Amino acid sequence: MTKDDLRIVFMGTPEFAVATLRALVEGGYNVVAVVTQPDKPVGRHGSVLQPSAVKQYACSIGLPVLQPVKMKDPGFVEQLRSFRANLQVVVAFRMLPEVVWDMPEYGTFNVHAALLPQYRGAAPINWAVINGETRTGVTTFFLDHDIDTGRVIMREPFDIKPEYDAGDVYDGLMQLGAGVCLRTLEAIVAAGGHPEALPQDGLQQPGEVLHAAPKIFKDTCHIDWNQPVKNIYDFVRGLSPYPAAWTELISEDGKRLALKIYQAEKRPAEHNFPVGSIHTDHKSYIDVAVKDGFLRLRSLQLAGKKRMNITDFLNGFKQIAEYTVG
């Protein structure tokens, strides 16, 4: 078997998936069609439709694009079948029904941004950083009935440096994922379409606690200041640059202002200040007191304003010390 024998349907939506799709195309693989999410309404009235990053790239090189609303729709399933793909590759897409993932002769494999069985779910990069992990990675695995539980083909680690935020890890895993996908395809070709793949149960270390990676909502991003400073620091970088950790500035008369925090520093220290109190020189720093130190804020955004570094923020918000956070 050679790579010319593969007929691949690629499924994905965000920029993260584009790197892998580009690697397949530039690597000479026969991608016969692309499946992505329907165009997203944007603008004040939702009157403008924004195509996904994957669609934009696929259209730019002339690949057929399918955008089903429902993956079980008989019309879509029949259209997908008409491309006669013998392998499907999925990167950052949605859960597939069996009628779709079981369609090709050689199955459907997913490129997942974590070292499975750790961080199964929709937001593995964010949760790995939030939880203070020092290592994550990329896993390719065959899809089956349950989300992110299929047999593993390959895993490759990636180190999370202490200063990395979720955006840094996203960029690193985007490139790593493209490479792991290519190596997975090489293994599939070398094995005649059926490479060795291991059940995830055998990959869990004795005593290892598995962490989930559920979808992140606005309420998920609210900062709990009654945590150690390192936990809060990891929380901020795990949600930066998107969707961003947030808190509220609370004035003495009860006025509340929503505030997103994109960058911060942890400053362990002993003190007697109330948790949530704000300390500043009004020029170059804002420190928020927590039980074992201070979180020094570096990049902020008030609701309705643009993102600012701390110096610019203080130039326009002189009364910051009159607030607490909550």
Q: Can you walk through the features of this model?
A:
- This protein is an alpha+beta fold.
- It contains eight helices and 16 strands.
- A seven-stranded mixed sheet has the order 5-2-1-6-7-8-9. Strands 10, 11, 12, 13, 14, 15 and 16 form a seven-stranded antiparallel sheet that branches. A two-stranded antiparallel ribbon has the order 3-4.
- The longest helix is centred in the middle third of the chain and has 25 residues, at 166-190.
Arithmetic mean of pLDDT: 96
Order of helices and strands: EHEEEHEHEHEHEEHHEEEEEEHE
- Side by side, the strands of the main sheet go 5-2-1-6-7-8-9
Distance between the termini: 61 Å
Rg over CA atoms, rounded to whole Å, is 23 Å
Shape: elongated
The description of the largest β-sheet is: 7 strands, mixed
Helix content: 10-25%
Our estimate of the beta-strand percent is: 25-35%
TL;DR?
This protein is an alpha+beta fold. The protein has helices spanning 15-26, 53-60, 74-81, 98-101, 124-130, 166-190, 229-238, 310-316, and strands at 8-12, 31-35, 40-42, 48-50, 65-66, 87-91, 108-112, 135-142, 152-159, 245-250, 256-268, 278-280, 286-290, 293-302, 308-309, 324-325.
Spell out the blueprint of helices and strands.
Elements: E1 8-12, H1 15-26, E2 31-35, E3 40-42, E4 48-50, H2 53-60, E5 65-66, H3 74-81, E6 87-91, H4 98-101, E7 108-112, H5 124-130, E8 135-142, E9 152-159, H6 166-190, H7 229-238, E10 245-250, E11 256-268, E12 278-280, E13 286-290, E14 293-302, E15 308-309, H8 310-316, E16 324-325
Parallel strand pairs: 1-2, 1-6, 2-5, 6-7
Antiparallel strand pairs: 3-4, 7-8, 8-9, 10-11, 10-16, 11-14, 12-13, 13-14, 14-15
Helix pairs in contact: 1-2, 1-6, 5-7
